Amino acid sequence: MADVTASDAALRRFLHGLPGVDAVGLEGRAATLGTRSIKTTAKAYAIDLAISMIDLTTLEGADTPGKVRALCAKGVNPDPTDRTTPKVAAICVYPDMVKTAKEALDGSGIHVASVATAFPAGRAALPVKLADTADAVAAGADEIDMVIDRGAFLSGRYMQVFEEIKAVKAACARPDGSAAHLKVIFENGELATYDNIRRVSWLSMLAGADFIKTSTGKVAVNATPPNTLLMLEAVRDFRDATGVQVGVKPAGGIRTTKDAIKYLVMVNETLGEQWLTPDWFRFGASSLLNDLLMQRQKLSTGRYSGPDYVTVD
Questions:
Q1: pTM value?
Q2: Out of 99, 129, 213, 262, which one is annotated catalytic?
Q3: Could you tell me which residues come within 8 angstroms of residue 64 by beta carbon, excluding any fewer than 6 positions away?
Q4: pLDDT digits (tens, 9 = 90+) for 46-75
Q5: Of 142, 145, 210, 259, which residue is the catalytic one?
Q6: What residues contact 92, with CB distance under 8 A and at least 6 apart?
Q7: Which residues contact 226 (CB under 8 A, 6 or more apart)?
Q8: Cα gap 48→179, rounded to integer Å
Q9: Rounded distance between C-alpha atoms, residue 284 and residue 286, angstroms
Q10: Tell me: the pLDDT tens digits for 196-213?
Q11: Cβ proximity of 128 and 115 under 8 Å
Q12: What does UniProt give as the signal peptide span (predicted)?
């Protein structure tokens, strides 16, 4: 696989040599997996698993330290009435809020993720993107969610995108030799075709992505079952070819427990149980957690408390 990235021409030949995506087959399989039902005991397990996979997120211009600290408190203890409720996987914030989140989460085991590289549009010069990343890592970010240059990718400038991902990966390094994990965001809703999603998945993994992520949550089309299934198949095929395992993060538009369980079924059926951990699969979500908590309480008590049971974030 190393020879694939030796030159722009080699990378282009490889990416365009990937099998074309059967859109009808992909959408049909995603729809079929979405009809699977699970029993009550399995549903309880799936709800707890989904909670433990959430990157609880606030990415608004009106974010304040107080809001971030409140979100961190919710991530540590999602349901104050039930201490058996799992913690979330990470709190995801803008780089200037990393220090606040890191202090609030100290000792919790929850990761701090930060969007970088001129999120969400990615329209900035590479030195600016690298500085953005380095600042977040220096502030204590455990994970960096970067956005690719969609304009470059759609123009066929694959090597530019590849080298940018590699450069951001290098900027994730810490002085002690460790590094923040890198999640590469595609913005699938802007990539136009399934073939492009497959190509950018392979390109990003070849460049060193630790996770591949569907979307920013800031456009009309974000995570969908078909585009996430396609990415799951890509990481499966990449591991078969290289031995390297990469995680997947659908983000944006996943709001209900029913939706989350459909995605967990896809992961299990496509990749197997070894990917069913927060180390290899995440949900980029904010409102999803509230529905999971309400459904969890209903399973526990037999009563549905409604939206007043959870906090408004």
A1: 0.93
A2: 213
A3: none
A4: 999 999 999 999 999 999 999 999 999 999
A5: 145
A6: 55, 56, 57, 58, 59, 113, 114, 115, 143, 145, 284
A7: 23, 26, 27, 30, 194
A8: 29
A9: 7
A10: 999 999 999 999 999 999
A11: no
A12: none
Closest CA to 182 of 204, 141, 211: 211
Domain ranges of the chain: 16-303
Q: Which CATH superfamily is domain 16-303 in?
A: Aldolase class I (3.20.20.70)
Which amino acid belongs to residue 130? Answer: L
Q: For 263-302, how does the pLDDT look when each residue is reduced to its tens digit (9 = 90+)?
A: 999 999 999 999 999 999 999 987 899 999 999 998 878 7
Q: Is 291 a catalytic residue?
A: no
Residue 249 among the catalytic residues: yes
Among residues 87, 129, 169, 249, the one annotated as catalytic is 249
End-to-end CA distance of the chain: 45
Q: Report the chain's C-alpha Rg in angstroms.
A: 19
